[in-house]
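User: Is it possible to get a 3D structure for a protein together with its bound compound? The compound here is manganese (II) ion. I've pasted both below.
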Amino acid sequence: MVDPGGVRESAPVLAVVVPTYRERDNLRPLTEAIATALAGIPFEIVIVDDDSPDGTAARARSMAQADPRIRVIQRLHRRGLATACIEGMLATAAPYLAVIDADMQHDERLLPEMLRTLREGTCDIVIGSRYIEGGGTGAWAGERLRISRLGTLVAQMVLRRPIGDPLSGFFMLGRGLLDRTARRMSSSGFKILVDLLLSAETPPRVLELPYTMRCRELGESKLDLAVALDLVLLLVHKGMRRALPPRFLRFLASGLVGGAFHLAVLGLFHLGAGVAFPFAQASATGAAMTINFAVNNRLTYRERRLRGLAELGGLLRFCLASSIGAAVNIAVADRLFGLGASWWIAGLCGTALGSVLNFALSSLFVWARPPRTDEIATLPSLGFLREQVR
Ligand code: GDD
Ligand code: MN
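Assistant: Yes, that's possible. Here is the predicted structure of the complex:
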């Protein structure tokens, strides 16, 4: 295919997928650097933006007007680095796929060597690695480096493979591996590479090339505590052979925080301040529900987080949903206990059922996003529920 401007002479061999959230000012330097690095190689750049409020998508489109090698996917009402990367890779026909951060932290000059290595056919995926001989993290602050190191160690233990930088956000693979693996991936959170490595049917052949990570000059990092916890839960999800959906695991983790808080408040009020037990227990329950809601709102449903007045309404509905769950929990436990089950089995069964019910009710009545028009006809369909738990 020959285009009038002569910019694209043939179909792209390589697609460089760039997930973006609030990266408007990084786009121009990034695409220029990629184009320089890939001189002579037919490529395209797929920018996948989650409707950033700073107008990243609009900037990307105006750049695409001048350079047809740039393409844009703008997703509405959704957030997520991993799903953005996967959708970007699925939206191109290129046989080789790279993922790179928009903030210039990854060294785009490594791309040609990554491609050459893949084309030799001796590996399925090439990772740009900070933690092998010759690589580095540049001028990173100590704290950030420690978190990254720790996360890397955990991921390596789960992978049980000597991979230096399994959390790298900079890698390249052939379409075959993606085709075979995409449907099996959890796609939750940040850690797309670990997800890919853990989800592949047979362990992919990995090769690492060293690079030194640069510092972010414009915009800010989206990596935070919730992202770190997401990684842990993704590994739990994989560890239990995907028995429970990641969102339910996040819900349970939030529940544990609420439970710990409950005990702390109960102890403080009853033992510490001498408040009568029923009052101490009631205060602790109220406090735990509020904390539980707040954590769920920021962690479990972070991409649909309720804010302002909606958050208050959400809290009330959450308390209502939780009371239904609690009532069922108590009734079931009591019945099992009456039938002769030991106290802890009865208690555990009640709690398990109550948690599942709480999860279902709150995802439908507290954090349900408005159904899309095409869903209204089939509501309540299984598809809708499946979307809720992911
Ligand atoms: N579409 C989309 N949606 N993009 C996102 C989202 C999202 O919800 N969140 C972050 N991004 C984009 C950012 O705009 C950036 O281009 C890239 O994903 C990485 O986000 P950063 O916020 O720059 O992450 P980081 O630099 O702190 O984390 C880096 O190191 C990790 C390992 O320690 C990245 O390279 C990660 O990919 C890597 O896993
Ligand atoms: Mn970054």
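The mean pLDDT is 87. The radius of gyration is 24 Å.
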